[in-house]
Amino acid sequence: MHDAVQSSVVLRTRRLRLETQQEPIVLLHADCPIARSVGFTARAQVELVAGGRSALATMYQVSDGLIGEHEVGLSEDVWSHLDVPDGTPVNLRHPLPVASMSAVRAKVYGHRLDDDQIRSIIRDVATERYSDVELATFITAFSSHQADFGEMVTLTRAMVEVGEGLTWPGRQIVDKHCVGGLPANRTSPLLVAIAAAAGLTIPKTSSRAITSPAGTADTMETMAPVNLDIAAMRKVVEREGGCVVWGSNVGLSPADDIIIRVERAVGLDSSAQLVASVLSKKLAAGSTHVLIDLPVGPTAKVRSPQDASQLSEFLTLVGKEVGLDVRPIVTDGSQPVGNGIGPALEAHDVLAVLRCENSAPADLRTRALLLAGELLELGGAAEQGAGQTLAASILDDGRALRKFLAICAAQGGFREPPVAPLRHDLVAPEAGRLASIDNRLLAKLAKLAGAPAAASAGVRIHVKLGDEISRGQPLLTVHAETPGELAYALEFAAANARILQLTEA
Amino acid sequence: MHDAVQSSVVLRTRRLRLETQQEPIVLLHADCPIARSVGFTARAQVELVAGGRSALATMYQVSDGLIGEHEVGLSEDVWSHLDVPDGTPVNLRHPLPVASMSAVRAKVYGHRLDDDQIRSIIRDVATERYSDVELATFITAFSSHQADFGEMVTLTRAMVEVGEGLTWPGRQIVDKHCVGGLPANRTSPLLVAIAAAAGLTIPKTSSRAITSPAGTADTMETMAPVNLDIAAMRKVVEREGGCVVWGSNVGLSPADDIIIRVERAVGLDSSAQLVASVLSKKLAAGSTHVLIDLPVGPTAKVRSPQDASQLSEFLTLVGKEVGLDVRPIVTDGSQPVGNGIGPALEAHDVLAVLRCENSAPADLRTRALLLAGELLELGGAAEQGAGQTLAASILDDGRALRKFLAICAAQGGFREPPVAPLRHDLVAPEAGRLASIDNRLLAKLAKLAGAPAAASAGVRIHVKLGDEISRGQPLLTVHAETPGELAYALEFAAANARILQLTEA
């Protein structure tokens, strides 16, 4: 009887070229007979079935000529899920309720979740059965009631299970992660080059910016392609020992990508989720030894040594349980590391360090050598205490640069990062000593200048905490690709003197 | 500088007639120069300013010809907020972050919220500054960490403060609320008629169905207009002593309407939110004495006597603190009250009781007299213990019917509810005794048949728990307005034998 009803009125697909950032949306005509017969109203969740494929979406209704009465308009996300040409007949039906939401509600009410409950939630998240408000409920529940050790372990494993997995020959596969919140600090490409040059295997996946001016993947992309699939990533690592690719494209932890987007939107990030997010990606990448950089500072993500210490403990213990040797390292997060903030600006810093140029930011070089030393020791390429010296020699004799260029070539070819056509210096209005840097405002300034969509846009910072500044001295240079973005950023800078605060000289 | 940038490219409004159920959406062309210059990407929250008005919306991008590069397409919600004709120049900007979300996050982490924090949240919710995921976070936080007494009181008061308020002459203004979850149970129109006929003032606002087959407002609308504004509602009550109008249209508790929609979507409903929701609407309506019906049953909203008892205590104590005399009454919620489920079907039951017809459902009459008796006593129209007798005499001598028709006339005119053109009996496959009724499946069946959008659609139930049933006896009759809806409902009924369960005779 179902089929008889459904086939009496058939809707045909129409790609709307509607970009919604992974939010599946379909548009129906308000008088669409099938919507009426099935009892759909605007904002309903619907399931579309065409050929053998199905997709969930939020349905809205249009009453003018945008959509015909027998059409269903598809957002890009729905269109790519169904993967059918325009005009394909499609059935609409009520989606089944997401069964695992009952487990989420149990967590809301303070109950511990067992393995099956956590696995069912993550499976439904990864297959995009959760709406955004359901995701927000899941995230809030785990922020309201801290997961215990066992829940964190299960969460980590469940996130690995729903993604692709990689394995490598050899016993020690190293990796690195930074908990973030600090602009620039682009040490990853340097670490990958040094570690791979030292003979280690380091299959590094990185993220793109979500709320920051640049992710490592955005920076890397100004120098080489990063949208590699899992097979291409494998080839690069097999050939060169390391890579720097965009993680979401590889599909190592699809649930995590979905969760992170909503976490950012509501400003929550539970320890459990952070631990599971970081470790699941490393596990899925086939890593065995992971260095985790935890920058601590008043405007970084981790704000106090106590928080860093607790997070370190979670990462280490959960890591051990799932088979990862985790080494957390707490670093100074009070100011940017490197001078450039924005994809290409950060890439220029990375290349300057690799090329041992005089203009290379000393703090980025120092930070990279510190972390690379730890990584070489962790991976067994250097004795305890000898890692930094080895890292410095690999950098200084050009092996790191050659390895980096070889990795870029393997990923599809090296290119020099672009330079922004528009630049404007912001100078010190008075003399003084640089007392504080607000990393969040600085990131915002770089974003308003166009980063990361405009790859060459962003901010270059010319001063460090404690510097004595003279009146009129350039503090920041805003880089932009369009006059509008430049003006917008400068207006923001003028209204936000707190970005850099000077005390009287 | 801001103005100079903004005015360089002006977007013009275009009403899309896009129905999104209060979700504000705007569409821009993917190449829209202003979006690029301001750094907007798809799914960003944007603020539109046109003339002196502004509106928040989620922005999506379209890359084909639906929207011009210099246009901004408005969903109906945004269009009605801005209230400007097509082609009006509009500025887009980044909305300020919602400051009160920091208070929500404090609640997530288990902190008690003070009065200012709760007030700021509810103000931002009422002015539609919260996105859906932020609303879900707020709701989940209050479900994860039960509000204390003081928080409930503040939440209730805050919800009153952001809405319209009514006051009435006289000291005792009565009202009634049902915590719901039981199909049919349409006692409100009967109570209003009886109480107003007894000389009491009862300014009743009701809701429309959100997830149920009919709200009281939907049922009432099949007999009289219910979309009255606050001034019209006042006139009806001043003239007749009572009314039954749609609450959201009156605007007594705008924050509540917004919160409830997301609560339903995620399946959460905290006690605090329920208490604040119910009491704030009664306070705003100017009521002083409120009867609250709490049907308890395994498939009703309140599932156990313990839950009912705790909720009663919250309602009574918070009510007292905000100046409401609340009388909770726990009733049987194991099966529907009345025979019809669906707007017009329930209206027919109500009219049959008012008209004292032989076919009138006895259980609906009994339930209405029980509640009306309590209400008359609560409002001082009857001595303790004499309420039900007075209520019965008002019903039996036709005063209730005359009052009801007068109220309908005052609201815009009485009409007979419609009758569905298509009806289909579902009969007992075997003989037996009716052992259980799943209220939720029954409601779903009525919705699939078309209720509440199709006013005459729904289900009529012919049996009660414990009835001896013979083979082939009609159990339910499905009413529908279209063949598609009828077939869809029958298919569901065939697949869900659990709706009514018989034991062997």
From TrEMBL, chains A, B:
Q: Which reaction does it catalyse?
A: thymidine + phosphate = 2-deoxy-alpha-D-ribose 1-phosphate + thymine
**UniProt cross-references to InterPro entries, sorted A to Z:** Glycosyl_Trfase_fam3, Glycosyl_Trfase_fam3_N_dom, Glycosyl_Trfase_fam3_N_dom_sf, Nuc_phospho_transferase, PYNP-like_C_sf, PYNP_C, Pyrmidine_PPase_CS, Thym_Pase_Put
PROSITE patterns per UniProt: THYMID_PHOSPHORYLASE
User: What UniProt keywords apply to this chain's record, in alphabetical order?
Assistant: Glycosyltransferase, Transferase
- Stretches assigned to the Pyrimidine nucleoside phosphorylase C-terminal domain: 433-500
Q: What class of enzyme is it?
A: transferase
Q: Which EC numbers characterise this protein's activity in its record?
A: 2.4.2.4
Keyword check for Transferase: yes
Q: Do you know which PANTHER family this protein is assigned to?
A: THYMIDINE PHOSPHORYLASE
Sequence similarity:
Belongs to the thymidine/pyrimidine-nucleoside phosphorylase family. Type 2 subfamily.
Quote the protein name from its UniProt record. Putative thymidine phosphorylase
